[in-house]
Amino acid sequence: MLRGSQIEDVAPAPDLSINWAGFYFGGFGGLSETRFRTDKSVLEIANGNFNGTVVLNELSPAQLVLAPTRTDRGTTFGAFAGYNYAFGDVILGFEAEYSRVDQEAMASTLEARRVASGDVYIASVQNARLNDYFNARVRFGYAYGRLMPYFTIGAAAGRFDTNIAVASDWRSASSNYTTSYFGWPRSIGGPKKDVWGYGWSVGGGLEAALTENLIVRGEYLFTSFNDVEGVTVNVNTARIAAAVKF
Q1: pLDDT for position 11
Q2: What is the pTM of this model?
Q3: CA gap 184, 50 in Å, rounded
């Protein structure tokens, strides 16, 4: 008895493709390390305290207010929204976000020098707190089915509280260093709230589409704010996020 050939049905391969184009919004949480360092505005204040005097020919007051880099670490969280355009597997996206940080650092200096004209004393405070910031970024990605690695770059605006001040005294050599010159002691600067600093950001990450409408990502982002009242602030952030896509 002849037996006919048997052909088993083969299940079709799962469809791993997804439409990455469209609007999305979501939230994130992660860890940030924020670094604060002395910038040119503090140096200019220190020199400015002695404008028009012979002290500037004898030393550089700016060198006396340089403070070590300060670091703060902690959690961060926020929300974002964006829109992706798909050109085959190439993805071009535009995204805006809000990040809450609440990290701060304090520094102070006190130095004295004896020069030909007299004794020079100079002190500074360089305190800054990054409360939060906004980010507008462009994303460039390439889709591998339900996975999309991407690179991102953009502009940032941060909200700070600062207390940047320089105080100085200049005591006359002719008075045996006991009497300050006319106009000294003097102080420039002081505390300010809600100071805006501007900068840029760059980073990258990997997105995974769990469903057609639910996306998760892991991301690293570096953000820099230059010369905020005399302090440069750099933020390194690692975070995870989830978003709903329409």
Answers
A1: 53
A2: 0.87
A3: 10
